[in-house]
Design a protein that fits this description.
The complex is a heterotrimer. By secondary structure, chain B is of the alpha/beta class. Chain B is built from 10 helices and 10 strands. Chain B is globular and about 60 Å long. The longest helix of chain C has 33 residues. Classes of the chains: A mainly alpha, B alpha/beta, C mainly alpha.
C-alpha cells in the first residue's frame, strides 16, 4: 500500500526539469512556470499535512498559521533587521516548531472535532495577530521590500531560476518524506491511525509521534512561507487566513489523503484552479472549491489517487 | 512443568479498580511465576479484561500495585510497559488493517529498535541495516506461526483464525518475557483452536511466560499450569486444573451466573 | 446629554456582551441539537445565521414584505437549506468517519458561503430594527431596543425547545435517538428523519439569530465561520450536548468578548472568544456543565 515506485519518481523529475522549457516554447502557457512555483510551494505544505492527516490520522485546519509564521519571520528579519535570508528561513522553521509543540502538546488528548476546532481557533488567532501587530507586520497593508534569494552570489532573480530552487526543495522533502513513510516511523504512524491501543501495546510512544508529525508539517509549511515571501517580495495577512487553511484541506482531499502523490496532485490542481482557470471567475471561486470538496468527500473518499483502484474494481465485477 | 519455582515475573498486589461507583476489581492479588502458563477465567464481567488493561498500562489501578520483574509498573504508560517486556493481544482483534501481514509483525519489533525521525528520513546506513534486520526477524516469526506464505497480503484479508495468529505473532516480535493473550480461541473452530493451543505451548517452550484469559475450558485445562478464577472482580479460587475443576465455588460461580 | 460613568460603561459592556452572547448561545444550541442526535459537529452552523440575515434583507428590504411575513418566510427558507445540507452533504457519505464528516460540513459551509457571495456580493447589509432605534437608557448604559429583541428571542427559543423536547412525542423521540440510535430505531423511530429534523431545527434557530442580530451588527457573506467557531466555543464551554450549558456558555463567551474588547483591545475582539475556546479544550473539554465520564464515552 505504500510501495512508492522509483519509476514514477523518475518520470515526475523529468517532467519538472523539462517543464519551464516546454512552457517557454508555447506562448499560451508561458506564465505556467510562475504558477508552478506556487504549486511547488504548496506541495511543501501538503506533503507534511498528508503525513499528518493521512498517515497519523490527525487533523489541522489552521496550517495557514505556520505558513504565515514562516513568511513573516523571513520578512521581518530580512526587512527590519537586514539579516541574510537563509538563516532567517531556519529561524522561521524553529519558531514554527516551537509553536507547534506549544499547540500540539495540549492538543494530544483531543480527538476528532475537538482537535479540528482547536487548530481552527489557533489559525484564526495567529491571523488576527498578523493583522493587529502592525509595528512588526505592517498590519493589513502587509510588508513590502522583502529581498530575493541568492546563494554565493548566484541570484535567483528570474522565474525560471526560482522555479528550480523551489522544486529542488520539493524533491528533497519528497524523498525525505517517502523515506519516513517506508521506515519504522511510517509504520508507527499508520498503526496510530488505525488503533492507538494496539500501537501503544506494541511500544509505540503515541504522544511523541503525534507531536513529531505535527512539528514536521509545521516546519514544512514555514519553509514554504519563507520561499513565498522571498518570491513575491511582498506579503499581507489575507494570504494566511482560514480560507487558505481550508484550501490546503481541499488539496489533500482532492489528491488523496493517504498518499504522498495525492498531496502533489491535489496541490497542483488547486493551484492551477486558483491562479489560472478560475482567475477571471472570482465570484465562482468559493462555490467551486466547496463543490469540489463536497463531491470528493462523497464520491472519491480516497481522492484522485484512488481512481485507478475504483476503475479496477469495476473490471473485476 | 517447566517454570522456575522461586521467581515471580508478575505480581499483582491488592489491586482495586473502580469506575465511578462500579467496582471492577477488588483487592486482587495474583502472582505469576516465570515460565508458567497461567489462565485467568471467570464468568463474563468478572473483570478479566480490566485486569489485562491494568497490567499492560491502558489505565492505572485505583489502588494497589503491579510489579514486573520486581519493579512497579502500575503507573507506566502502555508503550513503556511494552518496552519492559510485556506484550499482549486483544479480545477483538486489533490488527493494523491498513498494512500487510509482514508489516504488522515488523511494527511489533518497534520497541527493539531505536530509530530516530531524522535517521529514518535521511535513510542513514544504520537505519537501513535495522530495517533489513526487522524484516528478517519478522519473516522468522511468520514462519513460526505458519503465515509466511501470506506475508504480503493485507492484514484484514485474512480469515479470523489467521488474524488471531498474526496478532500473536506481532506480540512475539518485541521479544517479550511475558505475553498476555486475551481470549486467543474466541471465535475459532475446532481445528483453529487446536493450532492456537499448540502455538501457545510452543511459545511457552521458548521460555516466554504466558498469561491468558479464555472461556474455552478444553484449552484452559489442556495447556495451563495454573488457573486463577475471578468472579465479580474478586479471586475465588486458584490452583492446578484438576483442583479448579473440582472446586465448588467455581462451579457455583459459573452455574449461578446463568 | 447623560454623562458616561465607569459603572455605566461597564454596564454597557455587560449588556452588549449578553446580547452578543445570546447569538452565540443560539448557535451553540443549534450545535447541540445536531450533536445530540448524530454526534456530528456541524461546521456550517454559522452559515445559517448568515443566511438568516441576508435572506431577511431580501424579503423585507428588497421585496418589501412586512416584518410579520418576512420573518417566518426567512426561517422557513433557511430551514430548507439546513435540510438540504443533511440530505446532500451528510446522508450520501457511505463510510462516515470523524474526518469525513468534519470535511463534509466544512465543504457545505464554504459552498453556502460561496453561494451567498455570488448572490449578495461582499458588501455588508443592514436591516431596519424591529422597533426603531430610539435608545433606551438603563443604569447609565445606552441600549438599542434591538438588543432586547435578541435576548428576548433567545428566551423564547429556550422555552419552546424545553417544551418540545420534554413534552412532545417528536421531541422525546429525538432525545431517544440522541441516547441510543439503535434502540430508538428498534422501537420504530425513524432515525434518519430525526436527523433531518435536527438539522431543520438548528437551521431555524440559526436563522432567528441572524435575523435579530443583523439590525445591530449588519451581515455579510463571510460572517458564518467566526460565528460557528465562537458558537462552538460556547457549546464546549457550557458542556457539549447540554442546553443550559449552551446558554451559559454563550452568555459567558459574549461577556468576555465584550469586556475584552472594551477594556483591553478592540482589535483583538475576536481573539478573546477563541482563546477561551482553546483554554476550555486544553484544560476542561467537558465544559462547565458537562461530565467527564460522558465525554469519554461519546464516539467522537
Amino acid at each position: 500500500m505504500s510501495r512508492i515506485g522509483k519509476i514514477p519518481i523518475a518520470f515526475f523529475a523529468l517532467f519538472i526539469v523539462a517543464f519551464p522549457w516546454v512552457a517557454h516554447e508555447i506562448p499560451s502557457i508561458e506564465n505556467y512556470t510562475d504558477i508552478m512555483i506556487f504549486a511547488g510551494i504548496y506541495c511543501l505544505i501538503t506533503m507534511g499535512l498528508s503525513l499528518l492527516m493521512g498517515y497519523a490520522g490527525q487533523i489541522s485546519i489552521g496550517h495557514a498559521a505556520f505558513y504565515g509564521i514562516g513568511a513573516y519571520s523571513s520578512a521581518i528579519l530580512t526587512v527590519q533587521y537586514g539579516l541574510n535570508p537563509w538563516p532567517c528561513i531556519i529561524i522561521g522553521m524553529i519558531l514554527s516548531a516551537v509553536v507547534a509543540v506549544l499547540i500540539g502538546a495540549p492538543s494530544l488528548k483531543l480527538r476528532g472535532h475537538y482537535l479540528a476546532m482547536a487548530t481552527l481557533a489557533f489559525g484564526i488567532i495567529v491571523y488576527i495577530i498578523f493583522n493587529e501587530e502592525a509595528a512588526w507586520t505592517g498590519g493589513p497593508d502587509g510588508m513590502t521590500g522583502i529581498p530575493g534569494l541568492s546563494l554565493f552570489g548566484f541570484e535567483f532573480d528570474s522565474v525560471e531560476k526560482y522555479y528550480y530552487l523551489v522544486w529542488i526543495f520539493v524533491f528533497a522533502v519528497f524523498i525525505f518524506t517517502v523515506n519516513l513513510i517506508q521506515s519504522d516511523t511510517g509504520r508507527a504512524l499508520r498503526a496510530i491511525h488505525v488503533s492507538e491501543p494496539a500501537a501503544g501495546a506494541m511500544g509505540v510512544d503515541i504522544s511523541r509521534f503525534k507531536i513529531l508529525v505535527f512539528v514536521y508539517s509545521a516546519v514544512l509549511a514555514s519553509l514554504a512561507g519563507s520561499l513565498y515571501a522571498h518570491y513575491l517580495n511582498f506579503i499581507n495577512p489575507s494570504t494566511f487566513d482560514l480560507f487558505f487553511s481550508i484550501k490546503l484541506l481541499i488539496m489533500i482531499a482532492l489528491g488523496g489523503m493517504h498518499s504522498i502523490w495525492g498531496a502533489i496532485i491535489g496541490a497542483g490542481i488547486i493551484t492551477f484552479l486558483s491562479y489560472e482557470w478560475l482567475h477571471y471567475f472570482e465570484e465562482y471561486e468559493v462555490i467551486v472549491y466547496g463543490a469540489i470538496l463536497l463531491l470528493v468527500t462523497i464520491f472519491l473518499p480516497k481522492g484522485l489517487v484512488g481512481v485507478p483502484g475504483i476503475v479496477k474494481g469495476w473490471f473485476r465485477e | 512443568m517447566n517454570f522456575v519455582d522461586d521467581e515471580n515475573i508478575l505480581e499483582i498486589n491488592r489491586v482495586v479498580m473502580a469506575f465511578g461507583g462500579l467496582m471492577a476489581l477488588s483487592n486482587l492479588s495474583i502472582r505469576v511465576k516465570r515460565g508458567m502458563i497461567k489462565a485467568i477465567i471467570g464468568p463474563n464481567g468478572a473483570g478479566k479484561t480490566t485486569l489485562f488493561n491494568i497490567i499492560t498500562g491502558a489505565f492505572p489501578p485505583t489502588q494497589g500495585s503491579v510489579r514486573f520483574k520486581g519493579l512497579p509498573i502500575e503507573h507506566l504508560k502502555a508503550h513503556k510497559i511494552a518496552q519492559r517486556g510485556i506484550s499482549r493481544t486483544f479480545q477483538t482483534v486489533e490488527l493494523f488493517g491498513n498494512m500487510t501481514v509482514l508489516e504488522n509483525v515488523m511494527l511489533g519489533c518497534h520497541t527493539r529498535i531505536r530509530s530516530s525521525f531524522l535517521a529514518s528520513g535521511f535513510q542513514l546506513p544504520q537505519c537501513r541495516r535495522k530495517e533489513a534486520q526487522i524484516k528478517e526477524n519478522a519473516m522468522k516469526i511468520l514462519k513460526f506461526i505458519g503465515l509466511v506464505d501470506k506475508f504480503s497480503d493485507p492484514a484484514d484479508s485474512l480469515p479470523l483464525g489467521e488474524q488471531k495468529m498474526l496478532e500473536i505473532g506481532r506480540a512475539l516480535a518485541s521479544e517479550p518475557e511475558l505475553i498476555c493473550l486475551d481470549e486467543p480461541a474466541a471465535g475459532l473452530n475446532e481445528t483453529e483452536t487446536y493450532v492456537a493451543s499448540s502455538l501457545i505451548r510452543a511459545i511457552n517452550a521458548k521460555g516466554i511466560t504466558v498469561l491468558l484469559v479464555e472461556h474455552d475450558m478444553k484449552v484452559i485445562m489442556n495447556i495451563s499450569d495454573e488457573i486463577t478464577v475471578l468472579n465479580y472482580g474478586q479471586k475465588i479460587a486458584e490452583g492446578s486444573p484438576e483442583e479448579i475443576q473440582n472446586n465448588r465455588r467455581v462451579i457455583e460461580a459459573y452455574l449461578g451466573s446463568e | 446629554m447623560e454623562t458616561i460613568t465607569l459603572s455605566g460603561q461597564l454596564f454597557q459592556y455587560l449588556i452588549t456582551g449578553i446580547t452578543v452572547g445570546s447569538v452565540y448561545a443560539m448557535v451553540a444550541v443549534g450545535f447541540n441539537i445536531i450533536y445530540n442526535v448524530t454526534e456530528i459537529i456541524n461546521f456550517a452552523q454559522g452559515e445559517f445565521v448568515m443566511l438568516g440575515g441576508l435572506i431577511m434583507v431580501f424579503f423585507h428590504v428588497v421585496m418589501g414584505l412586512p416584518l410579520i411575513m418576512a420573518f417566518p418566510a426567512t426561517v422557513i427558507l433557511v430551514t430548507l437549506v439546513g435540510m438540504l445540507l443533511d440530505r446532500l452533504a451528510i446522508r450520501p457519505i457511505r463510510q462516515p468517519s470523524v474526518l469525513t464528516l468534519i470535511i463534509a460540513t466544512i465543504a457545505a459551509s464554504i459552498l453556502i458561503k460561496g453561494a451567498a457571495m455570488f448572490i449578495w456580493g461582499k458588501d455588508p447589509y443592514d436591516l431596519p430594527a424591529f422597533s426603531g432605534r430610539n435608545p433606551i437608557t438603563v443604569f447609565g448604559a445606552v441600549i438599542q431596543p434591538q438588543y432586547l429583541w435578541v435576548i428576548g428571542f433567545l428566551i423564547v427559543i429556550v422555552i419552546v425547545l424545553s417544551i418540545f423536547f420534554d413534552r412532545t412525542i417528536i421531541g422525546k423521540a429525538m432525545s431517544a435517538c440522541a441516547d441510543n440510535p439503535n434502540a430508538a430505531s428498534l422501537v420504530g423511530i425513524n432515525v434518519n428523519q430525526m436527523i433531518l429534523l435536527s438539522f431543520a431545527l438548528s437551521a431555524a434557530i440559526g436563522a432567528v439569530a441572524g435575523i435579530t442580530v443583523t439590525p445591530i451588527s449588519l451581515m455579510e457573506y463571510d460572517r458564518g465561520a467566526m460565528l460557528a467557531v465562537k458558537g462552538f466555543g460556547a457549546a464546549i464551554l457550557g458542556g457539549l450536548g447540554s442546553f443550559p450549558g449552551a446558554i451559559l456558555g454563550g452568555l459567558i463567551m459574549g461577556t468576555i468578548e465584550s469586556f475584552g474588547a472594551g477594556l483591553i483591545s478592540s482589535g483583538y475582539k475576536d481573539a478573546f472568544a477563541l482563546i477561551v475556546l482553546l483554554i476550555v479544550l486544553f484544560f476542561r473539554p467537558s465544559g462547565i456543565l458537562g461530565s467527564i465520564e460522558i465525554s469519554k464515552i461519546k464516539r467522537f
